[in-house]
Each structure stands twice: as C-alpha cells, then as structure tokens.
C-alpha cells in the first residue's frame, strides 16, 4: 500500500472528526444531548485529560499530556513511513494510519481549541471570538459526542449492596478520532498474523556434490 493512500485515509478521518467536533462545538451547549435511537445519543462533553476523562494533576499536567501526545504521534508517523517503505502488509499500514489520524484529531483539539473557541458552559461557543478563547495554546479540551447507553436502568432491590443503584452500560462518551484509534488497534489484534507475518526461515541446505574425476590412467 502506498504512502499516498495512507495519507488519504488520514485526511478522510481528520475531516470527519473535525467537522463533527466543530459542528457540535458551535451548535450545542455543554451537556446538551439529542436522542438518535434509544441506545445511541449525541451528548456534548469535553475531555480535559486522557481517555475516560482521567486528568493529570498540577498546573503543568495538561501541558505535559499534550507534549507527550505530540511526541507519541511523531513516533507513530515514523512507524507509518517505515511500514510503507518496507512494503508491509496492507492491514498494518491501514491500522497505523487510523491510529495516527485519531491521535492527530485529538491533538488538534488539545493544541488549538482553547484559543479558537470560547467556553461552552451555558452558551453555544463561538468560532474565533473577539474576546479570545477559553484557554491558552496546548490547554484545549477534547470534544466528545458519541454516547451509547445500551443499558440504563437500576439494579433490582433484592441485589445485595447494589439494589436500587443505577446500572448502566456503556458509559464512556467518545468521538470519531477515538473510534479510529480503537478500530486501528482492534485490527492489529484481530489480524495480528497478517499484520506482522513471520518471515519464513529459509534453511535451504545446499548439497555440495563432489565430483570425483577418475583418472583413467590411474591403475
């Protein structure tokens, strides 16, 4: 698979990811939701930290996280280039391209969204507001909106310790970039043997035939 096709996958994922995020950011207030199906909702939340909303403590926690992401995506980019150069399997190149696109999509939020949007708490954000953004560069929050509450009920009263408490599955809210990363990793796991084929060891032993020339003059 060529590098040009891999870049095409990356651009396509980035366009879908950023268009969906910008639409949500400029049309929804924080925590606004729309029911699509009973098990699928569009729910606008912002992620300040890593996956599942985990945050790094301290003043420089967010900055460290963003810089780490930039370092990681550089490594992933080199991995992609190297895989194409070595004519690796198509499944490996597609997987790396999806992971790269997803990581880059969320990095764009972290690096730029704080300065190109104002806050979404109690209002719909404005793109390039006159009063400036809600945070400095590298301190933006990742926009999430895909929510699949497949199970949202309560535990039966007879269940010890849990009776009457909320029972839910699947709670995380994510975005297109997260989906691309998940699909890329899943492809590597499911098609591991195709992604990383083992080179057959060529143990071809050459049988050296010694041609003994019989000297007819020899008695």
Tell me what you see in this structure.
44% of the residues lie in helices and 13% in strands. By secondary structure, it is an alpha+beta fold. It has one domain (3-195). Strands 1-2-3-6 form a four-stranded antiparallel beta sheet. Helix 1 packs parallel to helix 3 (90-116).
Give the secondary structure arrangement, pairings included.
Blueprint: H1 3-27, E1 33-37, E2 40-47, H2 61-85, H3 90-116, E3 142-147, E4 151-154, E5 166-169, E6 173-174, H4 176-190, H5 192-195
Antiparallel strand pairs: 1-2, 2-3, 3-6, 4-5
Helix pairs in contact: 1-3, 2-3, 3-4
Biggest sheet record: 4 strands, antiparallel
Strands across the major sheet, in which order?
1-2-3-6
Assess the beta-strand content as a share of residues: 5-15%
Mean pLDDT equals: 87
Shape: globular
Question: Which descriptors would you attach to this protein?
Answer:
4-stranded antiparallel β-sheet; 219 residues; two-stranded antiparallel ribbon; alpha+beta; single chain; 6 strands
Describe what is shown at a glance:
By secondary structure, the protein is of the alpha+beta class. The chain is 44% helix and 13% strand. The protein contains 5 helices and 6 strands, in the order αββααββββαα.
């Amino acid at each position: 698979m060529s590098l040009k096709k891999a870049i095409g996958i990356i651009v396509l994922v980035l366009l879908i990811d950023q268009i969906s995020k910008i639409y949500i950011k400029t049309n929804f207030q924080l925590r606004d939701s729309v029911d699509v199906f009973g098990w699928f909702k569009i729910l606008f939340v912002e992620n300040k930290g890593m996956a599942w909303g985990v945050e790094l403590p301290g003043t420089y926690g967010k900055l460290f996280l963003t810089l780490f992401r930039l370092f990681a995506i550089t490594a992933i980019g080199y991995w992609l280039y190297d895989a194409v150069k070595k004519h690796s399997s198509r499944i490996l190149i597609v997987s790396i391209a999806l992971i790269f696109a997803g990581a880059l999509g969320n990095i764009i939020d972290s690096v730029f969204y704080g300065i190109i949007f104002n806050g979404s708490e109690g209002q719909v954000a404005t793109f390039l507001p006159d009063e400036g953004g809600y945070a400095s560069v590298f301190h933006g929050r990742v926009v999430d909106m895909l929510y699949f509450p497949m199970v949202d009920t309560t535990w039966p009263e007879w269940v010890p310790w849990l009776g009457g408490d909320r029972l839910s599955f699947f709670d995380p809210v994510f975005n297109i970039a997260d989906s691309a990363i998940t699909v890329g990793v899943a492809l590597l796991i499911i098609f591991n043997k195709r992604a990383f084929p083992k080179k057959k060891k060529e143990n071809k032993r050459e049988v050296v035939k010694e041609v003994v020339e019989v000297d007819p003059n020899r008695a």
